[in-house]
Amino acid sequence: MSHVLIVDDERDLAELIDFNLRGAGFTTRVAFTGEAALTAAREQSPDVVLLDLMLPDLSGIEVCRHLRANPRLRDVLIVMLTAKSEEADRIRGFEVGADDYVVKPFSVRELVLRLKAILRRSASPQEGSPPLALGPLRLDVTQHRFFVEEKETPLTALEFRLLEYLMARLGRVQTREQLLEQVWGLSSALETRTIDTHVMRLRDKLGPARALLETVRGVGYRIVDPAAG
To answer: What is the pLDDT of residues 49-103, one digit of tens each?
Structure first.
């Protein structure tokens, strides 16, 4: 049973989410401030944090930074809930380690399905899965670690899953719709801009190998083998 920490100062909304998540089989805890959220996370490590960006004390961005800086909590899935829909806000959220971004107002039923999909896709890999290697990149699936030129580089859970999915399909173009369905576990009828934002952030983390993650205009993305060209 997955545990979700709901962080939102809109009490009615937080209680509505809490009610629906409990009905869907999650255990939950609600925090109405950033400080309360950090205390709750330290007391009981959540599987997912639903994190409002606008809080009365610390911002959601600061809470996210604190969670990612804590060795015990840095792998927790973080889904930001916010009324801010501008691309710059989305990018800033991903920069500090958010795994997904849900814009208010939203369907609570869709939110529940999204959380289930994220948790399913982020489940621990099978023991003994061999590392994926390509040029200067090495992805250790079993230990959930990523290296560029043998230097470890942190990835969010969804960035890791996205890179693993693309590397396992070397040279094959994956459409945005395929990525939404296979990596996010979401309907391809939903918004696909989140794919572009994640790819942009992931490409930056590839460092000298960033050119290996190609955009196929009008179609999607692929990882290419540097030895093939």
So the answer is: 999 988 999 999 999 989 988 988 888 999 988 776 666 776 777 777 788 888 8
Query: How far is the C-alpha of 229 from the C-alpha of 227, rounded, in Å?
Result: 6
Which of 217, 124, 225 is closest to 169 using CA atoms?
A: 225
**First and final C-alpha spacing in the chain:** 47
Token representation of residue 220: 């999607």
pTM > 0.85: yes or no: no
Q: What is the pLDDT of residues 165-208, one digit of tens each?
A: 999 899 999 988 888 777 776 655 555 677 888 888 899 999 99
Distance of alpha carbon 120 from alpha carbon 175, whole angstroms: 21
Three-state SS at 219? coil
How far is the C-alpha of 46 from the C-alpha of 52, rounded, in Å? 16
Instruction: With CA atoms as reference, report the closest residue to 40 among 64, 5, 77, 11.
Output: 5
Cβ pair 8, 52 in contact under 8 A: yes
